[in-house]
Design a protein that fits this description.
34% of the residues lie in helices and 17% in strands. With 489 residues, it is of the alpha+beta class. It folds into three domains: 59 residues, no CATH class; 56 residues, no CATH class; 277 residues, no CATH class. The strands form four sheets. Strands 7, 8, 9, 10, 11, 12, 13, 15 and 16 form a nine-stranded mixed sheet that branches. It has a three-stranded antiparallel sheet with strand order 1-2-3. Helix 6 packs antiparallel against helix 7.
Length: 489
């Protein structure tokens, strides 16, 4: 704009007074489409650039004597109300003194973010700051430093805490005996150390076998039961809902996620159903020689003889390419598996779906939960669930291991199955380096085939009692007509 205004001496004057206030004339120009300067009036120039007379006057105050535009002198002097650097440093030191930690559920976009305790907020932090520091700053400056200088957030309230950690906290708070208190603290540290070692084992395995195509690393877990239907009609809150089940299998090498869905009219949610989903995964989705599985320590679903039989069946059967399975259990309450993050995305997306009538609607929620690499859905039917009953009849479930010790399922942290050792499982009670033990067993001539868990002719309502069926059918009238047939069955 400085170059588009020409300041020249005035060409004529009508005043006889030599001390006229106007000594120069300004010519205003604009560039056309060819880059040529076109003379325009002052009003047109001002409206084009949306500037005032005052701004033009300040810009051209000394143009007659200089050929370059003046430098912007704003911001070179220290502001009178600027917060001193020593006060800013005090705020930083105080915030750094508050314990923070990384969240195992952080999204990929916030991997460097740390979290403060869930019982804190910005107001409480500022109140603590005022108690500790005498030379205070305003809450506005404190908030500004917190938000701009730190990548911190307040963790959401913990709703799924470890029961052992909670028990330790209660016992330590009530303990008055110093000897007993020391013992409890040692047990607590050992428990936390086991949890940390288990999590580190996950990272090491993923890094170690990252480029090995023969190894597949997965984590799996069953999502909390999903009520169906989910509608706003008040009476539905007092009626029996049909539960939908969702098992997530997360491939930790390529971040693929498969969600196996069914409802309680199709099958239950025991170890046979969980294992059947893994059978489908290995037979139709992933082909590997070595499978490493991570799961929680739920005894009813993951750590029991039925799941062990299916794993042994996989490595012994010619139907599958897998010849070795390592099933590793993470400490309950400290598992922080990838599946938990996947389930969180589903629950977050659920808020955007007002009404859910049937299983297919839940599958639409799951599909929309992750935009980058959407979850893949496998709808399970009765023909895809298998029973281990015939397998149980052909093995001896020994209670004594080869080292003469008792086989304690609830303490197992690692179970290994191998094609070269059929009808035996090897286990550890911790992640230590000692060899895996094996219970005494017997060898059979061949591996029997697994049979369907639920025959094709099984009625759909065998898992729902008579009273529950009546409550389920009572909400059919609130569903769209197109969904009533599927619900009534």
């Amino acid at each position: 704009m400085f170059s588009l205004i020409k300041v020249v001496s005035k060409s004529r004057t009508y005043m006889t007074n030599e001390n006229s206030r106007r000594q120069n004339t300004r010519h205003y120009y604009l560039s056309d489409c060819d880059g040529k300067e076109v003379l325009v009036c002052k009003s047109f120039f001002k409206n084009t650039y949306a500037v005032s007379d005052g701004r033009i006057n300040r810009l051209l105050k000394n143009k007659a004597s200089v050929s370059t535009p003046p430098l912007d002198r704003r911001g070179h002097s220290v502001s009178a109300n600027k917060t001193p650097d020593n006060k800013i440093q005090q705020i930083k030191e105080f915030i750094n003194s508050i314990p923070s930690y990384e969240s195992h559920y952080s999204l990929h976009k916030s991997v460097n973010r740390k979290y403060l305790a869930p019982d804190l907020n910005l107001s409480i932090l500022y109140s603590l700051y005022t108690e500790k520091v005498s030379n205070l700053t305003s809450k506005f400056i404190f908030s500004k430093v917190f938000n701009e200088e730190f990548n911190l957030s307040f963790h959401a309230p913990i709703t799924d805490s470890c029961k052992r950690c909670d028990a330790f906290a209660i016992k330590l708070k009530a303990c008055t005996n110093e000897v007993e208190k020391v013992r409890l603290e040692q047990d607590q540290k050992l428990h936390l150390l086991k949890a940390e070692v288990a999590r580190e084992g996950v990272k090491k395995d993923v890094e170690l076998y990252k480029e090995d195509e023969d190894v597949c690393i997965i984590s799996f877990d069953l999502m909390k039961t999903l009520p169906t239907p989910v509608i706003s009609t008040g009476i539905c809150y007092y009626k029996r809902q049909l539960w939908t089940y969702c098992l997530g299998i997360h491939n930790m090498k390529n971040d693929d996620v498969f969600m196996f869905t069914w409802d309680e009219s199709v099958a239950s949610r025991g170890p046979q159903e969980i294992a059947s989903c893994i059978l489908y995964f290995l037979k139709h989705i992933v082909k590997c020689k070595h499978l490493i599985m991570f799961s929680d320590q739920c005894g009813g679903q993951n750590r029991n003889i039925k799941m062990a039989l299916f794993c042994q069946y996989i490595v012994s059967s010619s139907e599958y390419t897998t010849i070795k399975i390592d099933h590793k259990f993470l400490v309950s309450g400290h598992s922080y598996m990838s599946c938990d993050q996947d389930f969180g995305l589903i629950e977050k997306k659920k808020r955007f779906f007002k009404n859910i009538f049937v299983l297919k609607d839940w599958e639409q929620v799951i599909l929309a939960a992750r935009k980058n690499k959407p979850f893949k859905i496998v709808s399970m039917n009765k023909d895809l669930f298998f029973s281990c009953k015939i397998l149980e009849k052909n093995i001896t479930n020994r209670k004594i291991a080869i080292d003469k010790g008792k086989v304690e399922w609830l303490k197992m942290q690692w179970i290994m199955y191998h094609e070269m050792h059929p009808f035996k499982l090897y286990f550890k009670y911790s992640k230590a380096a000692y060899p895996l033990c094996a219970p005494k067993g017997r060898t059979l001539a061949r591996v029997p085939a697994a049979r369907n868990c639920y025959h094709f002719g099984t009625r759909a309502n065998v898992f729902v009692g008579a009273l529950e069926r009546g409550a389920v059918r009572s909400v059919v009238g609130f569903l769209p007509r197109i969904n009533r047939g599927a619900r009534a069955n």
